[in-house]
């Protein structure tokens, strides 16, 4: 089983559950399909499982990027990935506009900011040397819809109906948590700012949270 399922901490796991989105960080595997590095570039993207007539080789093929999989877009954002500019062109444009509006100012002020510059900011917010995950402390009531955080080693999503515990197979029922609790925020700070500005992870826009299956 390949170690290619991404959790909200950005770690890669070998689990049987399937994801709804794909993504990559470059070639992470060796000739034995073992993950030997956490990333090879700063452009961590999230992709559609299928796009036009593109036929992808089997995951972890020689010379090809290491295909990673996510439960949903909220999980991908928490891990520090952003929409691909090719297969998710419109979604990527929406994200970039919201990110600039929230972190730079007016769209005009940031119109010349390249996605590569945003990637550098995201990389500083998400990754530690050696592959660890950066997080930061915040009060739970301050977190906008779509943000993911951890308490006692469990990851949660700020959903429309409350706080939902994350798992590879989906989200649990809403749980009661103290709004004044200090939590460890997993979603990178600049993405949280974009959420506060009105940008919402895709599944939360239309159909609410996934449930356990």
Topology:
Elements: E1 5-6, E2 12-13, E3 21-24, E4 45-47, E5 68-70, H1 73-79, E6 82-83, H2 89-103, H3 115-126, E7 136-139, E8 148-151, E9 154-159, E10 162-167, E11 170-175, E12 182-185, H4 189-196, H5 202-206
N-to-C CA distance? 21 Å
Supply the number of helical segments. Answer: 5
> If you compute it from the alpha carbons, what radius of gyration comes out, rounded to the nearest whole angstrom?
17 Å
Low-confidence residue ranges? 206-213
The total of beta strands comes to 12
Order of helices and strands: EEEEEHEHHEEEEEEHH
Count of structural domains: 1
Helix content: 10-25%
Percent range for β-strand residues: 15-25%
Instruction: State mean pLDDT (0 to 100 scale).
Output: 91
Q: Widest sheet: strand order?
A: 7-12-8-9-10-11
- State the secondary-structure class: alpha+beta
| Shape, per Cα inertia axes | globular
Protein name: Ada DNA repair metal-binding domain-containing protein
Task: Summarize this structure as a short list of keywords or feature phrases.
four-stranded mixed sheet, 5 helices, alpha+beta, six-stranded antiparallel sheet, globular, 213 residues
Structure overview:
This is Ada DNA repair metal-binding domain-containing protein. This protein has 213 residues and is an alpha+beta fold. It is 22% helix and 22% strand. Strand 10 (162-167) and strand 11 (170-175) form a beta hairpin.
